[in-house]
C-alpha cells in the first residue's frame, strides 16, 4: 500500500535551528552534543563525592538517619586533619543529587487547604485539612522530551496529512496526523512571530490510585503528561514519553 504526505502547507513549519534559535540552511546536519571533560563531576566536587552519593543513595539505599550517623563518624575521623566528609548530612546529599543537570526533573511540593467560608456547624473534615501536592515543572519535562535523542526519528515536528494513493483516502495514525493539529497550526500561523516554530501539543491525563497497605487506605491522584509530537509506538512502549508531573495525596475521610 502506497502513501504520501501533502506538503502544500506544512513545509513552512518546524524549520531546523541551532541552539541559539537561528534557522539553519536546508540540509544542514544538527550540531553534535557538547562533550564534558572527563574530570567534570558536576554538581559533585570530585570523584569521591560522586562515588559516595552513588553508594549511599543507589546501591545501599541507606536511610536518612543512618546517612547522618555515618557522616558524623566520618567527620570525627577527619577533624584532626582539618578536613570534612563529602557531605554534611543527608539533606546536603539529597540537595546535591537533586541539582544534577541530567536525568529527571526534580520534584517540588506545596500545601493547599480550603480558605473559603465555612458553615457555622457540621464543618466537613476536608475544609479543615491540608493536603500535600507534589509536582515537577511541566516546561522542563516537555523540554526533556523534545531533547531526548532516542525520539529523534520517532517524533513529528509538524502536522501532516497522509493519503492512500490507490483510494485517495485520508489516513490517520499519530497525533500530528489529526485534523485538529493541522487546524491549530493554521491559527498559530496568523502570528508572524511564530514563523518556523514547532507546535507542541501537551497531553494530560489523570486517574485515581488507592493504596491500602500501611497507608490507611489513602487515595492518590497522579497527573501524567506527554506531548503529541511523539509517535504512537513510542507512547505504547512508554520509553520516557509519559511522565508524572503532579501527585495529590488525599486522606480518606470517614464520616461517623
The chain-level mean pLDDT equals: 82
| Number of H/I helices | 7
Calculate the terminal CA-CA distance, rounded to whole Å: 65 Å
Largest sheet: 6 strands, antiparallel
The percentage helix is 25-40%
Briefly note the structural class of the backbone.
alpha+beta
Shape: flat
Model regions low in confidence, pLDDT < 50 over at least 5 residues: 1-12
Describe the structure.
The chain has 256 residues and is of the alpha+beta class. It has a domain at 104-157 and 198-256. It has helices at residues 47-59, 64-78, 90-98, 125-128, 138-147, 179-188, 232-236; strands spanning 3-5, 108-113, 130-135, 162-164, 169-171, 202-206, 209-211, 218-227, 243-250. Strands 2, 3, 6, 7, 8 and 9 form a six-stranded antiparallel sheet that branches. A three-stranded antiparallel sheet has the order 1-4-5, with no helix packed on it. The longest helix is centred in the first third of the chain and has 15 residues, at 64-78.
Q: Secondary structure elements and their pairing?
A:
Blueprint: E1 3-5, H1 47-59, H2 64-78, H3 90-98, E2 108-113, H4 125-128, E3 130-135, H5 138-147, E4 162-164, E5 169-171, H6 179-188, E6 202-206, E7 209-211, E8 218-227, H7 232-236, E9 243-250
Antiparallel strand pairs: 1-4, 2-3, 3-9, 4-5, 6-8, 7-8, 8-9
Pfam families: Plavaka
InterPro entries: Plavaka
